[in-house]
Amino acid sequence: MAVETRRPPFPFPGSSVRRSVPVPDEERKTKNEERSAAAAPFDHVLAATVLSLVAFGLVMIYSASYVLAERTYHSGTYFLSRQVLFAVLGTAVMIALSYVPYRVYRVLAYPILLAGLASLGAVVGGAGQTIRGATRWIPIGPFNIEPAELAKISVVIWLCYSVAKKRELVKSFSIGYVPHVLLAGGAAFLCLLQPDFGSAMILVVLTFGILFVAGARISYLLGTFMLAVPVVWQLVAGSAYRTQRILSFLDPWKERFGAGYQLAQSQIGFGAGGIMGKGIGEGQQKLLFLPDAHNDFISAIVGEELGLIGVLALLMVIGVLLARGFRTATRCRDPFGSYLAFGITMLIGLQAVINIGVAMGAFPTKGLTLPFVSYGGSSLLVQMAAVGIVLNVSRSANAPAAV
Questions:
Q1: Sign of the C-alpha dihedral, residues 77, 80, 85, 91?
Q2: pTM
Q3: Confidence band (pLDDT; 50, 70, 90) for 56?
């Protein structure tokens, strides 16, 4: 192997002669790649798209929450001011992480994973706060932190690290498949105990998606899916509230003022908006008719106030975000960086599709926020931090190949 000689900064003790230290070509290439990536620009289109969604979300949160905030907290800007705080903090974190080499997460994969799983364990273990029958939040001062958001990104980082490390053995059942499925299944189980069925399902689908692009055998994926169907059925059929959610999803108007109330009001909002919408601030559903109008069902407020045109524009912007994320994944030459950009982009895309689908009645209610738009400080902060990681991967993708 060819080597390069490099002089240490100081002579060895007791020696007046500087000795040469061999540096392998691979180490030199890695250092050159890191220098090149640090100097390369990140994906400005991706960053601008995210910031546009955040700004749009602030406008819609204010419109959707003003009446509730005024009635509950005697301040119409209560929810807006809190979200602005996290938006500013999230922007700073996103920009800062765009300068942190993504290869650092190879070293931090296990500590980050343990932090995510520990936070889920803390919620289940008694540290969580119960709101509307679900224990998903840990109160920290005046804010509630949702550990499931950290857990999802921590599992993504670990999965991408693991499949990149084992990429020659991903097709192996015992080494490349079972460990990943078991760990993701454990994280999903902790989410189910909260209960948080939506986050559990996202973790499962993310795991399958990352394993698929990494080259896992289709037969393993299909076999696991077939085994999971009766388990999911039992989880739904064995839970009265989940069964009720499915029934209200199939026919929300049958229980118009019962279990189907929220979904029926959401559909009324979309229908009332028509093509052009009623105009920002002119919607009726936010007048305490639609629960969680500023949170899980904010897309219904978008539909009512901005109409079909507004919803399509929102979908187009989200589509641009996903396209830029997947573009970074395909252009990155490092397998770990490629998987990381894919996994994070898939996480954002899944949550966006499910959230809007739930509000429109295409999926049962899951309790997931619309990324960058819905109210929720911890989710916004984690999502913007995740985009910061993708932005750093885009630097590597935009950098010239090292020699």
A1: negative
A2: 0.87
A3: very high
